[in-house]
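[job 4471] stage=fold_predict status=RUNNING
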Amino acid sequence: MKTYDGGPEWTTSALAQLENLKRAEALLPENAPRALLSVRLSVLTADTTSPVRQELDLRLLARQKGYRVVGVASDLNVSATKVPPWRRRELGEWINNRVPEFDALLFWKLDRFIRRVTDLSAMIEWCERYGKNLVSKHDAIDLSTTLGRSMVTLIGGIAEIEAANTSTRVTSLWDYARTQDSWLVGKPAYGYVTTKVDGKPALAIEPCAHRALHWARRMALRGVSARRMARCLVRSGLMSAGLTTSTLLRRLRNPALMGYRVAENKQGGKRRSQLVLGDGGKPIRVGPPLFTHEEFHTLQAALDRRAKEQPTRQAGGATRFLGVLICADCSTNMTVQRNRRNGRTYSYLRCGKCKGGGLGAPGPQNVYDILVDDVLRLLGDFPVQVREYAPGAEARAEVERLEEAISHYMTELAPGGRFTKTRFTRERAEKTLEELTGKLNAIDPETTQDRWILVHNGRTFRQMWEAGGMEAMAEDLRRVGVTCEVTRKKVQGVRAPSVQLRLKIPRDVRERLVIKGDDFPARR
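[job 4471] inference complete, writing structure tokens
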């Protein structure tokens, strides 16, 4: 039975209605306008309109307006407030890459499609640029008229106000919950589970997590590294297989382990939890403590002693070709790790899964230089091509005009026609008919279709990369899927390993290098 991903199944009656609508659609002429259906829900509940109902209603609307349905973009569990249409998984693919395949975008209700006036304005501009229309099942929307565009903006403003009110209510609930000593809402910190005491929600200690955290504390006091602790916890089954060193450290440093309410501090680029203070500036206790104050603070001191002195992170990132340079042994990204010893900073290329990061390869800049030379040699002379949209409406109109004129002249040249009465009129009509036929044959049928075309901007990628630097090259290499395998081998008597690079270029690299314009650059 047909289903939506993560959504409900189609019933027998709904499938029967769908087949009837498809049979009616098959009777439409070949040149019928093409419609894309947009189906969206934030959360599927008993009070929401199901995606099945939305699709059937939109197919009925398409039949009423004479549209041929060419696709259904279904985005379930997606917030219209947080995710604009061009960033949704299915609808975004149609908007960004499949523009020539549809003429109108149909949706059930405007708030099912969009909830921000700025996003709505962007979509209206996009429709005007590409000659598309927006059609709603339950709103009077038609971009072909001034009144219709005004209605879109008005209804979009109302939808944004409704979304803002919902956000305000949710924020108020969270603000209130943070001031209470009982657990009202939210996901508890690691080590706790929700329960009920005297019919009220509360927190309780999770036994398995209790054992894992206290074992980790004992190991930390003995000077065991967090990396080794994480491996042991995963092997023992006390923590999940996806545990990373940073996740373990974040759990061990969370003051919520003392039974207090915490909030995430998002400043400084690090995920850290800090205590929420109540009346009188005292922490708010919301559950039984996993660690006493003394146990927690001795644990922090032990973790601090093991912490390495790391240099300040570079603004642009330490690794220049992150995502391009790949370890040949473990297939993870090569990253630059910088250590400071005796006042000097040392940089090494390391990977993610090899033991200890693999053989430490010093001198990342040398690797970058070799990679740049190889890329310029193999791809630098390729022309830079930009994808542009070419509508076929003008060519279609010209074909229609020529066909009507040819049909007219052929009718009048038939026996008894107006152009057959004299030799002069017949010869002139035949000459004109020949000219019209020549013009019709000269029109490339491809130009009558909406399509993407490739335009050469007169530059090569070598010129573009030399102007934009390694950052521009790295971005393009990631975009087209070019990777470079890094092999490190131990050399007898030499501390630094030998480093070899192997560039892996997709066969369709020319097509992938085509630059696709971004219609929403400031709104992504």
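[job 4471] summary: The longest strand covers residues 451-460.
[job 4471] exit 0
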